[in-house]
Every structure is written in structure tokens, then in C-alpha cells.
Amino acid sequence: MHSSLVRALVSVALLWNALSASSTRRYPEDNHPFELTIYRDAHSLKCSYHTFRRAQTFRGLPEGGYSDISLTRSGDERLQFISHDPEALRQHAWSLCGVQDRGVGQDLSEAVLQATSDTFELDTGSWLSSVHGVPDLANLSYPPLQVEPLIISGSSDNRVDLVFFSDGYLREEKAKFLEDATRLANDISGNQTFDTVKPLLNFWAAFSPSNESGIGTGGKPKDTPFGLYRDGTELRGVYYSKPDAARAACFALGDRCDYPILMGNDPFYGGLGGEFTVITPSLANGALVLRHELGHSIIDVGEEYDGGYAYFGVNAAHDLSVPWTHWLSNFSHTHGTDNIRVERSVMPMQAYAWTMLNTTEPWSVRFNSSGRYPRHLVRFSLSGLPDEDDLSVVIDGNRLPWSPRPDIGVDRWHYDIHRSESLAEGEHELSFTLENGNREGIAQLCSAEILEFGDETEFIADSGYYGVFPTFSEKNKTSYRPTNEDCLMRQVTTPNFCKVCIEGLWLSLLRRVDLIDDLRLGCQWELDTESPDKPSPVGKWKRTLELDLIPLAQFRAGGSATQESYAITWVKDGHILENFTNRTSLEVDDEDALGHYTISVRFTTTEVRMDRDGLLHSEWRHAVRSTCGEALKKIQ
Ligand SMILES: *[C@@H]1O[C@H](CO)[C@@H](O)[C@H](O)[C@H]1NC(C)=O
Ligand SMILES: *[C@@H]1O[C@H](CO)[C@@H](O)[C@H](O)[C@H]1NC(C)=O
Ligand SMILES: *[C@@H]1O[C@H](CO)[C@@H](O)[C@H](O)[C@H]1NC(C)=O
Ligand SMILES: *[C@@H]1O[C@H](CO)[C@@H](O)[C@H](O)[C@H]1NC(C)=O
Ligand SMILES: *[C@@H]1O[C@H](CO)[C@@H](O)[C@H](O)[C@H]1NC(C)=O
Ligand SMILES: *[C@@H]1O[C@H](CO)[C@@H](O)[C@H](O)[C@H]1NC(C)=O
Ligand SMILES: *[C@@H]1O[C@H](CO)[C@@H](O)[C@H](O)[C@H]1NC(C)=O
Ligand SMILES: *[C@@H]1O[C@H](CO)[C@@H](O)[C@H](O)[C@H]1NC(C)=O
Ligand SMILES: *[C@@H]1O[C@H](CO)[C@@H](O)[C@H](O)[C@H]1NC(C)=O
Fold it and tell me: What is the rounded distance in angstroms from the CA atom of residue 281 to the CA atom of residue 284?
């Protein structure tokens, strides 16, 4: 093609894109609902602040909207409402925060009547605040943020975005923060944990310099943006003292902040889940804490380990009607709950000791065994104990061979000692004795547990086996989980979720992400190759529709994943355009292009077996109402 002609066509394409941009919208409906979040005191019910904005895609939003209530660490209620109907949200806001000042109810109801849906979106902040003095979260102050992309797969309005916020990193430690965040993002998405869903995620790092390096101890935060601290010096929880700053910082990033991660500059174990995921960049524990806490918040599941109190979500059942029958290894033999077998196991002892060890007196515990199980496991976690000789672990007078994870130093780690012998009926004692006095003050027993199992036919411990495994709560109440130790929600040292959680992960993410990123309309001038020597080029317009899909299946960056596929169907005025099946672009003669198009995209992956809400399917419609020729005449 002549370069001048190419230039002309490019400019036509640009003009055309400008023209058609407004006609490209998310289908089948405007998928961006409104979101109202209110924080209020759980006792006085006084609203402290609110936010209102357009949320990102929420697919399969129930008719009455979505709502969620959670308690923040300071004991406030966090109420979140998502709805396509701003009027419904306004009423929520009013009923929750509207009557706290005497005498304003009247004003408010007038304000409600006067505000139209359109102005509501713009005015809601001043509407609530001017009438009630309930501040907008957007007005709270937050530290300066230098936002850097870490791993970006697409536009934030159609991705789930995770943001690392820095705490305890000095201005000159920015490079370390970026290194730490990059390492953790790669660890949890490079080749494991979140790798298969990575095209649905973005990772960002938001740097704010701290005045002091590190995190606080003894319950006292340092001079840092979010005021992270430990209760004592022992390696356990890491808490934050400036939740408002963290909320406002995340809010300020808009669509780019779905899951805020506060990272405290400390080399050792520690963290917290909930509204904010709090982690440290500990080499041994940073990724471990991060992926476990993200499992809670993204998949919305509880624990799988014993001794907890919250067991819920796709990986938990409280009776034998388990929600993962479609994953059971013995599924073909399973008919109803009658044939569902619970793996035979019992937990005679479990303790979150969180105790500093000393050489004067061992930490010990007595428990009873029924004597009816042929195998048992002694499970514990420790910190501040880098050497085997520092600690003796003794059960009924027998010293157990434990050896610290190499290079663990004083960081926390988890140990399992499997014993193929029966605990005799009656009382037993397990004790932990600190042998090295120099470790006093750092040596800590974090947790200890005894589990007993039936034989190999009664309890299938193999990885990859999906069944019904009993989990025991802090009150020794039994619930069920799908695998023995395949899931990081139980065994925090494994880097992966079980298949049941992975399926839940896909479904949670695809509720907030549409498989179709965009549908682009264009016009292309097709040169008539029969007569290339004519003085001016002869040709005709072609109408193009191009589909941008989330890069899964054959569009994955690393090449096609064989266990995934996209099936794409183009329908025009009710007829399937067979020739374009499974193609991402459609090209038709301009004069034949007018009509109603439906583009249906179905994603299949072996990681999802049950998709009740049709989240792996997306359908967009678009009407082409004018030809390229006509549109160009209008431009000229
Ligand atoms: C929030 O900030 C805007 C703009 O600065 C201001 O108009 C509004 O009054 C503030 N609202 C509250 C509740 O502080
Ligand atoms: C992922 O990569 C890390 C670091 O290279 C490695 O330690 C780990 O074994 C890999 N995991 C898998 C599942 O390949
Ligand atoms: C650091 O100190 C300055 C000056 O005292 C203060 O204005 C700023 O808020 C502090 N920054 C943080 C993150 O605490
Ligand atoms: C699987 O089903 C078969 C046939 O019902 C049964 O004999 C076997 O014990 C089952 N295995 C497990 C682990 O449940
Ligand atoms: C939990 O209950 C089982 C069954 O009653 C019992 O054998 C076990 O010892 C109990 N464990 C604890 C820690 O109380
Ligand atoms: C030593 O540890 C034991 C077991 O945790 C505890 O009961 C005891 O109070 C500790 N003694 C001192 C002096 O801290
Ligand atoms: C073990 O069982 C015996 C007999 O029932 C009881 O006296 C004892 O207190 C139990 N020990 C523990 C640690 O529960
Ligand atoms: C389209 O792709 C799907 C998924 O790979 C496949 O099952 C189907 O046979 C393909 N259809 C055509 C017509 O190639
Ligand atoms: C589909 O493709 C075939 C072969 O390229 C062509 O002959 C036929 O006209 C096409 N059909 C339509 C409806 O475009």
C-alpha cells in the first residue's frame, strides 16, 4: 500500500474509533453498579463516615442488591451495599445514618425527594455530609502515594486489583519495598497459588515513605503511615493503628484497590486478616501469610486448620451434604449422603500456646487417648529456635526427633511428626523444654496439636484424594473439609489451594471480572487487488467487530493452557455466523453489516466443574446502525 494511503486509512480508523467509542458499552447491561460503604459505631450506631461510588463489574448481582456487614478491628461496623439502584442505596444511607441528628429528618426526606438519580451520583457526598456531618471517606487524609505497577494484566475496571502499601520503609528504602512487594507478588502468582487466575489480577505497589524504619513493638507504633505494630516482641499478630489513613489511601486509588495489603518492614513472621491483609516480607512467612489471608478475603472461606472458630465457604460443611460432591474422588460410588464416608480421625489435643519458653519449667499438656487409632501426628509451630539442640519435644518420656527448617533462623515455622503407632488408652503428656538459656526471650511455642488416624483404608491421607475429612474447632466441634492436607487454608506451608478452593477462586473473581474486556468496532478499506495499477485505488469498506478477551486459554501470555478453552459464537439477527465461530474478530462487507449482533463467549477450564451462576459465560450485544460509508460522509 502507498504510505499516504496507509496514513489516510489510519486517520479514518482514528476518526471512526472516536465516533464509535461512545457506542461501545458493556453488555448485556451496564455492569457497573453503585456501591455505598458506611462505617458506624456498633453501639451508638452513629455513622462515622461513608463512601459512595460506581463499583466495578458485579455479575449476577441479586435483584435486591448485595450487602455485607463486617466488624472492623476497632469494633466498628462496616456496611457495604452494592446495587444498580442508587435510590435503594440512598434509602439505606438514610435509614442507617439519617436520624442521628434531631430535627433533620424532614430536611433529609426533602433532599431525598429532590435528588434525582443522576445528581445523586455527583452529590451524594455533600448530600449526606451537608445534612448530617457524616464525612466522606474521600475527605480523610492519607499519606502521599507513589503507585508503581508490579504485574498488570489489564484495565483495573475489569480486573481484581491487589495493592501493597508500605509501612516502616524510609524514603531511601523505597527500592527495598518494591523488591519485597515484587518478590511476594511473583511468589503467589508466578508458578503456584494464583498462577492460573493471574490474567484476572493486577498487582500494584503504593509507596509512602515512613519517618522511622521498621514496625512498632510493645503495642507502640512507630512514626509510619499506617502505624503497624506488634503487641509485644514475640512473633505473632501485626496490627495497625491508622485504619482511616489506610481506608482513605485505598479509596483514593479507586478501581485500582480491591484488596489492600499493608506490608510492615520487618523480617519475621506476623500478620493479620480482615479488612486489611497485614503482612511482613519475611522470607519464610511473607508469602505464606499473604496467600492464606487472601484466600479468606478473595474466596470468602474460613479456616481449614483445627482449633479455629470460623469454618464457612465452599471448602466447609457442617453436615454430610458437602458442597464439593462434584470433586469427590469416589464420586461414582457415592449416592446421596448414605454412602459418604468420613475419614476416621480425632483430635485429642489442640492448643494455641503462644508462649515464651524458659529453661526453668517446660510447657506441657496432658490429654487422653481412646487407644483405638493406629497412627498419630504431633504437630507444632515454633519461633526463636534455630537449632535442634535448643529444644526438646517429649511425649510420654520419649524425645521426638525434630529438626528446624534449614535457614529458618529465629523466624516461625511448622513441624509435623508422624508416628505409625497407637497411643495407648488413657492419659498422655506432651512437653516442650527449652534447653538453651540464650534463647529465653525469643524462643516461642506458637501452637501444638495431636491428631489420631485410622489405618490407611480408614483414613486416606494421600495428596490428591478428595473426600470428607473432619476438622475440629477450638470448641472441638466437627466440621468437614475436602482434602487431608492439600490446601493452604489448612496446611499454611503448602503453596496451593485445593481444587475446591480454586474453583471458588475462579467464581469469586469472575463475579467481578467480565471475560470480555471490550468490543471494538472499526472500518477497514480493502484494496481491490485485481486492479492495483489504477491511478486511484479501487476498493470497498469492510466492517469489523473485534473482541478483546481476558487473556486465558489460547491467549495466555505463556502460550495456550491445554486444559482451558474459549468457545466464541457470533450471531447476527438470530443467525449464527458459522464462519466466525471461535474467532475474535468479525469482518463483513459494509452494506451487509447492519443489524443486531450477539457475541457469546464461553470459557471452559478443568478447574471449574460447577458454575451455577453462569459466570464462565459472557454475552454482549451490539447493534450496527450505520455503514462505514455513511459514517465517513458525516465526518467529512
Ligand atoms: C469534602 O471535601 C469537599 C471538597 O474539598 C468539600 O466540599 C466537602 O465539604 C467536604 N466534606 C466533608 C464532609 O468534609
Ligand atoms: C515455583 O517457583 C519457586 C521459586 O522458583 C520454587 O521454589 C517452587 O518450587 C515452584 N513451584 C512450583 C509448583 O513449581
Ligand atoms: C513524618 O514527619 C513529618 C514531620 O514531623 C510529618 O509531617 C509526617 O506526617 C510524618 N509522616 C509520617 C508518615 O508519619
Ligand atoms: C470407594 O467406593 C467403593 C465402592 O463403593 C468402596 O468399596 C470404597 O471403600 C470407597 N473408597 C473410599 C475411599 O471411600
Ligand atoms: C474432642 O472430642 C473427641 C470425641 O468426643 C474426643 O475424643 C477428643 O479427646 C476431644 N478433643 C479435645 C481436644 O477435647
Ligand atoms: C516458664 O514457662 C512455663 C511454661 O510456659 C510457665 O508456666 C512459667 O510461668 C514460666 N516461668 C517464667 C519464670 O517465666
Ligand atoms: C483422662 O481421663 C481420666 C479418666 O476419665 C480423667 O480422670 C482425666 O482427668 C483425663 N485427663 C485429661 C487430661 O483430660
Ligand atoms: C470452538 O472451540 C471450542 C472450544 O475449544 C470447541 O469445543 C469447538 O469445537 C470449536 N468450534 C469450532 C467450530 O471449531
Ligand atoms: C464462509 O466461508 C466460506 C469459505 O471461505 C465461504 O464460501 C462462505 O461464503 C462463507 N459464508 C458466509 C456466510 O460468509
Answer: 9
Burial of 365 (0-12, 13-18, 19+ CB in 10 A): middle
pLDDT of residue 636: 60
Residue 10 reports pLDDT greater than 60:
no
Q: Which three cell numbers stand for residue 60?
A: 449476577
What's the pLDDT band for 47 if we cut at 50, 70, 90?
confident
Q: Which one, of 37, 19, 50, lies nearest residue 127 by Cα?
A: 50
Using the CB atoms, write b or e for 489-509: b if 16+ within 10 Å: bbbbebebbbbbbbbbbbbbb
Q: Average of pLDDT values for 454-458? A: 96
Largest CA distance in the chain: 102
- 399-437 pLDDT, tens digit each: 999 999 999 999 999 999 999 999 999 999 999 999 999
Percent of the chain with pLDDT over 90: 72
What's the pTM? 0.90
Q: Which atom of ligand 6 is nearest to the CA of 445?
A: 5
Which domains occur in the chain, in start order?
A: 3-26+515-635 (no CATH), 32-139 (no CATH), 146-299 (3.40.390.10), 344-459 (2.60.120.260)
pLDDT at 101 over 90: no
Q: Is 626 in the pocket of ligand 2 (CB under 6 A)?
A: no
Answer yes or no: is the C-beta of 347 below 6 A from any ligand 5 atom: yes
Confidence bin at 93 (pLDDT 50/70/90): confident
Ligand nearest to the CA of 351: 5
Query: Is any atom of ligand 6 closer than 6 Å to the C-beta of 398?
Result: no
The rounded distance, in Å, linking the Cα atoms of 386 and 383 is 8
Q: Which atom of ligand 6 is nearest to the CA of 355?
A: 5
Q: Cα(403) to centroid of ligand 5, in Å?
A: 29
Asked whether 6 lines ligand 8 (CB < 6 A), one says no
Nearest of 466, 626, 622, 458 to residue 546 by alpha carbon? 622
Query: Within a 10 A sphere around the Cβ of 516, how many other Cβ atoms?
Result: 21
Q: 557-563 long-range CB contacts below 8 Å, 24 or more apart? A: 557/199, 561/196, 561/605, 563/605, 563/606, 563/607
